[in-house]
Structures are given as structure tokens and as C-alpha cells.
């Protein structure tokens, strides 16, 4: 049941159309990529947890297929988890296409990246998105 719910969240997030785009300045590093995606993520203030997504880029800054959750640890019921996962997937898609520097684009195409999306835990001021 959880697998079906998560699959539905991924489908609807993938189908969502967003008008937000990342900065037009070419990104130089994976830290820049993480910051650009973090700027697109707007988790609800009461969400707590982490979802790790796995995804790959083409050299042109678009995704190779939809991001996939590889680890989900979110407080709440199935509906809360679906919303959390969906918001992280939508954040990545909202930033597409990213603009990569020539050097970054040369090495990024086809590589698999994992990125945890962590909503605030007591005492944290901001959600964090880290590249690994």
C-alpha cells in the first residue's frame, strides 16, 4: 500500500508543471546545484523528516527521468509522507533546466546523484538540501 501511495505521489509530482526556474547563471559545482534546488523547495512549516532522492542530469541541465525516493523517514501518516516526497520531487523539477558551466556539464551527464531533503527539526531555522 505504501509503495502504491509513493508511486502515485511520484507520478503526480512528475506530471506537475512549474514556472519557477533556477538562476540563469551557470552553476559551477555540485554545491551550487544543491543550493539552486534548495531555493526551489518550499516545505510546509510543520513537516518533519527526510527523503533522499536519486536522480541524474543530462549535460543540458534537464533530468534523465523522474527523481526516485531511496529513503523516506517522515513524521506522520501515508498522506503526510506522500506530500513530503512530492514536494521534494517538485522542487527538483521546478528548477529544471539548470544551467551548468562547461566544466560541470562535461562531468555531470548520466551520473547518479542522491540528495537528502530534510525539513526542520526542533531548533533548526531552515530546511536543508545536501549533495552527497
Q: Given the C-alpha coordinates, what overall shape results? A: elongated
Q: What share of residues are in beta strands? A: 15-25%
Strand order of the largest sheet: 2-1-3-4
Q: Output mean pLDDT.
A: 80
Largest sheet: 4 strands, antiparallel
C-alpha Rg (nearest Å): 14 Å
- Extended strand count: 4
Number of helices: 4
In terms of structural class, how would the helical and strand content be classed? alpha+beta
What level of helicity do the residues show? 25-40%
Please trace the helix and strand order, writing H or E for each element: HHEEHHEE
Ranges where pLDDT stays below 50 over 5 or more residues in a row are 1-23
Protein described:
The protein has 132 residues and is of the alpha+beta class. Helices cover 37% and strands 18% of the residues. The protein is built from 4 helices and 4 strands; from the N terminus they run ααββααββ. It has a 4-stranded antiparallel beta sheet. Helix 1 packs parallel to helix 3 and helix 2 packs across helix 3.
